[in-house]
């Protein structure tokens, strides 16, 4: 299926400097319907995905159907040269936002869907202005910078005693501290051996609040941390109330690249 059929408009007509950037914007735009009509979101689903009743109590089964096993290169010993040589093409952010559409549609209520769509619409104009003229070479360079940053964060997290997770702007988990595994019982293998998204580890209400707060700070040109309370879920779906603080790190093009999240349990 070509992009024109998928989005009901041609990305080429918008004049993006990169097809990859245009595709990410197109997926975001497809999740933001006009005049409160949410039918575009439902039409975007694969016909092979059955509809399910929204619930926060069921573990996600979408991920196993739609995402392959992740390359485990980050778990191996790496150096700067390996990081730069391993990146040959831009990262596919469109896939992550496409998965968000599927997850929200199948696992959340219609009101949750409306709130997340409204949140994404807040930063869409700023996002467009920044990615419009980026070329494929820019995006490759951006991904190299992200991988280099993750290499440093991996060292810092190993010295920290705070439960920490690092994820991309799509929510895809990149790094996990051992303290987070102790807090939630999600091991590194469980989270990094296949694509996992931070909102999948949260209760639905907490996930919605995260996207609302992320959209408010994604392009405000500050590095201040955003704090609120959230409820994480263990692999057995047991609730883990936490105080949650995240900081958005931006690349040289001022786009949100990675988000560093710290979690502290609320002891009652």
UniProtKB/TrEMBL annotation:
GO terms for biological process: cellular response to starvation. GO terms for molecular function: DNA-binding transcription factor activity; metal ion binding; RNA polymerase II transcription regulatory region sequence-specific DNA binding. GO terms for cellular component: nucleus. Residues 162-236 form the ERT1/acuK family PAS domain. Residues 43-81 are annotated as: Disordered. Keywords: Metal-binding, Nucleus, Transcription, Transcription regulation. Residues 43-66 have a biased composition (Low complexity). It is found in: Nucleus. InterPro entries: ERT1_acuK_gluconeogen_tf, PAS_13. The keyword Transcription regulation applies. The keyword Nucleus applies. Coiled coil: none annotated. It comes from the Eukaryota. This is ERT1/acuK family PAS domain-containing protein. It comes from Rhizopus oryzae (Mucormycosis agent).
